[in-house]
Design goal:
This protein has 13 helices and no strands. The chain has helices spanning about 5-15, 25-40, 50-70, 80-105, 115-125, 125-160, 165-175, 185-190, 195-220, 225-230, 235-275, 280-290, 295-320. Helix 2 packs parallel to helix 4 and helix 6 crosses helix 12.
């Protein structure tokens, strides 16, 4: 080979280069999603559904993407794909099962159950109303959640730091805390002048109580020796609260934020069902009344995706703010 010219060496090296190993999960995912596309097109429907051809084309496109990735992505760049590979396979198999037992065999009858193309048809035909409802829900949830966690955080700091404040506040919190926020709906709709303000209050109550309890618990568990050292060095009470108590309580605060996030979504749907003119909760109730269950399932998936995205964002914020805990906890 040393006798070959420079151009010949390049040709020889490219000819003897080993092919890339196949990403096995990607190949299986392509097979699963391709089976969904083929079954959707070939097998006859018990009941005709909208967007059947679009759903078949979409799943076929996804299968082609997985097939291309299985042969083209270098092994060093497959960490994320390898992690989610089994999920891609299971999701394709689930769509195949869902398609067969609803649209093809009719074991889960209409209108109570819809095949996947039924949900896709909802997204294609009712997307404008869904977007309006998402915007209304986002405004309501955003106001209620951030008001609630702000008030809950401040209350928790006071309860955990001040014995006098805890003497009066903790019994009230223990009395209100176990009561579900939805139980306060009659009072909220009577006290507040509009259903929107009442709904904001309910979401704030559901999200603020766990933040207050966990924040107070975190601050009260801080080692008192830290405060003694700070006072010896001349630190003020404000400095001790902002530089010692709150940073030490942040792990508990984030636990309360996660709990408040889930509770706020549960109350949000109930509150919107009782008087809102738009919103995902209203959308669910409106379509349930007309037995449009495909629209109901489509809205539930949207809510689940929004909540999952917010949880993921909260995890990123937590990891960013609590980076100092790595290697300690």
């Amino acid at each position: 080979m040393s006798d070959l010219p420079e151009s010949g060496r390049g040709v020889y090296a490219s000819a003897t280069r080993l092919p890339l190993p196949i990403w096995r999960d990607g190949l299986l995912a392509a097979l699963a999603w391709g089976s969904v596309s083929v079954a959707t097109l070939i097998l006859p429907d018990v009941i005709q559904w909208g967007a059947t051809g679009t759903f078949a084309a979409l799943t076929g496109t996804v299968a082609a993407i997985f097939l291309a990735l299985a042969f083209t992505v270098p092994p060093g760049q497959r960490s994320t794909l390898r992690h989610y590979g089994p999920w891609f396979i299971v999701l394709g198999l689930w769509l195949l099962l869902w398609e067969v037992i609803t649209a093809k065999l009719g074991w889960l009858p209409k209108p109570f159950f819809s095949p996947p193309q039924g949900l896709l048809h909802v997204y294609m035909t009712d997307w404008d109303r869904l977007l309006i409802c998402i915007a209304y829900t986002g405004r309501l949830w955003g106001l209620g959640f951030f008001i609630g966690i702000s008030a809950g955080f401040l209350a928790g700091v006071g309860l955990g730091w001040s014995k006098r404040f805890a003497y009066w506040g903790m019994p009230v919190l223990k009395l209100i805390g176990p009561v579900p926020a939805s139980a306060w709906i009659p009072c909220a709709f009577f006290i507040f002048p509009s259903t929107f303000q009442a709904s904001v209050f309910l979401v704030a109550l559901a999200s603020g109580i766990p933040v207050a309890i966990l924040t107070a618990s975190g601050i009260s568990q801080v080692n008192r020796a830290f405060y003694d050292v700070a006072r010896t060095l001349g630190a003020s009470n404000r400095w001790q609260v902002t530089k010692i108590a709150i940073p030490a309580a942040l792990p508990n605060v984030f636990v309360g934020l996660f709990m408040g996030l889930y509770y706020s979504f549960a109350v949000l749907v109930v509150a919107e069902m009782l008087g809102a003119k738009f919103g995902l909760g209203w959308y669910l109730q409106f379509n349930t009344a007309y037995s449009a269950y495909a629209n109901v399932y489509a809205a539930l998936i949207v809510m689940a995706l929004i909540c999952a995205g917010l949880v993921k964002l909260l995890f990123l914020i937590r990891d960013r703010m609590l980076g100092w805990q790595k290697g300690i906890l």
